[in-house]
Structure formats: structure tokens, C-alpha cells
Amino acid sequence: MAHERISSKEGLAMEAAVRKLAVRLPEVTEQVDGFGHTSFRVSDKPFVIMGEGGADGPALSFKVLKTTQEILLAQEHFYKTPYIGHHGWVSIRAKNIADYDMLADYLLEGYLCAAPKRLVKQVQANAQAQ
User: For the segment 22-31, what is each residue's pLDDT rounded down to a tens digit?
Assistant: First the structure.
């Protein structure tokens, strides 16, 4: 089975939109794993993972708190991420994302779940200063 990087037009647009949101956060790195999934990480912990998703099209997965996961799973188009959903991961197909800016708060929540305390404090202090 071949593992390929995101290459579809829809997948590349999703990757670019998520990158724009993720790189605003401190010490975020981007990585492509052996399966071709693009992830955004903080302290080598992923908080966003994207892949082509086969016949159903590209998908975006992100980490959130369990309470947020329950709220999102009650909405149309969100589903529990296979294999890691029990850890608070939620997924959505790119074709079902009307506006990536609406996901910004969820990506921030995932970042805060994965980030070390010093970065959490930094991000919270910056948010309060604004």
C-alpha cells in the first residue's frame, strides 16, 4: 500500500488554510509522517493531522477536550477520528468545511491540550492583553 502526501486540489487548499491558522501559535512545527499525513505539532505532540482520506476526500482531524468533542459529534459532518478518537480527536472532511476560520478556536484548544504549561501561559497572557 502506497502512502502519499496530500496532493489533491481540495487537500492542498485545506492544508494551506490550516497552516495559516496553526503557524500563528508559538513553537508550532509541521511534519509529514510515513503515511503521508501532514501534522502540526507543539513539543512534538500533534494537535492537527490531515490526510487525503481516500474516496471520501481529504480530512482534517484535531484534538479537543472531551466536552468539546461531545458537542462537535452532535453536529452534522463531525465524526470521531478512527484509532485516536477516544483521546478527544474529532475529524471532518474538507468538503464539509465552509469556513476554516470557524475552526480556529478548536485548533487553539487542541494546541493548548498539547502544549507545555509555559506556552499555555504565554498564549493565555497574549489573549488577555488583546
Answer: 999 999 999 9
What is the spatial distance between Cα 121 and Cα 90, in angstroms, rounded to a whole number?
Answer: 25
Kindly report the pTM of this predicted structure: 0.92
Provide the CA 18 distance to its chain's centre, in angstroms: 7
Q: Of 15, 29, 111, 37, give the one whose Cα is nearest residue 81.
A: 37
DSSP string, 66-98: HHHHHHHHTSTT-EEPTTTGGGTEEEEEGGG-S
* DSSP per residue, 9-57: HHHHHHHHHHHHHHTTSTTEEEEE-TTS-EEEEETTEEEEEEE--GGG-
